[in-house]
Design a protein that fits this description.
The protein has 360 residues and is α+β, with helices and mostly antiparallel strands. The chain is 52% helix and 21% strand. The chain has 4 domains: 30 residues, no CATH class; 66 residues, no CATH class; 116 residues, Tetrahydropterin Synthase, Chain A, CATH 3.30.479; 45 residues, no CATH class. The strands form 5 sheets. Strands 8, 9, 10 and 11 form a 4-stranded antiparallel sheet that branches.
């Protein structure tokens, strides 16, 4: 066996031991300066890994929350809801964040939202009078408790839909088909909403009912649908006639009341006038009677003259002679002759000579 004694100093294993010993020694160049060993690639990879880990940890230290969402922060199995929008901090890898929407969501019952076609399994129902009717509903709901929404039920939307279908069928079954299709829609919606709201409070799965509306309700056959349309048209005609009658009444009643008030006012005014006139006549009569008791003869003569003054101007005087000729003396001429002092006796003499005198 040949051994290379040059490197080992006579010991074939001495070279290996010397090389290991010299690896830890510091080396110097020809100028006496220490020579640094070159960095290995493993150190650069380690640095990159540390930077990536730092970025991952930093990104998991916070989360952003907007106005339309809740945040459910879970810390070692304990959940807590956060509703305030903005920047929030959390423990990386120890706290998990899930976002839950705050906005009002909708659910179609009885029809497909995209195609608009009815789903018979959900829409066909039986009414109180044993008729079938297709009824489509639209349910609006929102998350009231995000923690219970995520963890109190496996599928809260499905639970809500099943409860809504149950109460819809139960309520529609207490109404006649005419009410379901025409006039009873508002009442049915209100009853279903009240029942479903109370049940969701009892279930406590983090959902609340906002509103439920009947999108459409119609009989399953064309003949029945036509009959219901005729009934609806008749009801609308009835309502129109009632509204027109109420309008006519509201116009005529004020007119009649105004006329009635005017008649009453006129009657009261006439009553007052007659009362005043009667009181004036009574007062004059009493004054005249007082004068009569004091001067009876003079009072009689004065009353006679006053009466003649009222009667004579209305008289018409006719003079008829023996030949049948009639002459009408004007009343104003008679009055003028009386006022100027013409003697009435002279006229009487003329009348006695020519014929006879008649007064009407």
């Amino acid at each position: 066996m040949n051994w290379n004694w040059q490197t080992g100093g006579g010991n074939p294993f001495g070279g290996f031991g010397k090389r290991k010993k010299n690896e830890g020694m510091e080396h110097f160049d020809s100028g006496g300066r220490p020579v640094r060993k070159a960095r290995t690639p493993a150190r650069g990879v380690l640095a990159v890994i540390l930077v990536v880990l730092a970025l991952i940890v930093g990104m998991n230290c916070y989360y952003m929350l907007d106005e339309d969402n809740y945040a459910v922060v879970t810390t070692l199995g304990k959940a807590e809801a956060v509703s305030q929008a903005g920047l929030h901090f959390k423990l990386p890898f120890l706290q998990q964040v899930r976002r839950v929407s705050k906005v009002i969501m909708g659910m179609a019952i009885g029809y497909d939202v995209e195609s608009g076609e009815s789903i018979d399994e959900e829409s066909v129902m039986i009414t109180k009078d044993f008729n079938f009717v297709n009824t489509d509903f639209y349910l609006e709901y929102m998350v009231s408790d995000p923690v219970k929404y995520l963890y109190a039920s496996q599928d809260p939307e499905r639970t809500l839909k099943m409860l809504a279908q149950s109460y819809i069928r139960d309520t529609v079954g207490t109404y006649n088909v005419d009410d379901v299709i025409t006039t009873g829609k508002a009442e049915i919606q209100s009853v279903i909403k009240e029942k479903l709201t109370e049940r969701m409070i009892q279930e406590d799965i983090g959902l609340s009912v906002v509103n439920i509306t009947i999108q459409d309700a119609f009989p399953p056959t064309t003949e029945v649908l036509g009959a219901f349309k005729n009934v609806e048209n008749a009801k609308q005609g009835k309502d129109t006639a009632i509204n027109n009658a109420n309008k006519d009444r509201s116009e005529k009643i004020p007119q009649a009341e105004a006329q009635c008030d005017q008649i009453i006012k006129d009657a009261e005014a006439e009553k007052e006038a007659r009362i005043n006139e009667a009181e004036g006549q009574v007062s004059r009569f009493e004054q005249m009677y007082a004068e009569y008791t004091r001067y009876p003869l003079i009072t009689k003569q004065r009353m006679f003259y006053e009466t003649m003054e009222e009667v004579l101007p209305k008289l018409r005087i006719y003079i008829v002679d023996e030949g049948g000729t009639q002459k009408l003396l004007p009343l104003d001429s008679f009055s003028t002759a009386q006022d100027t002092g013409t003697a009435l006796t002279g006229q009487d003499k003329t009348a006695g000579a020519d014929g006879k005198e008649e007064a009407e």
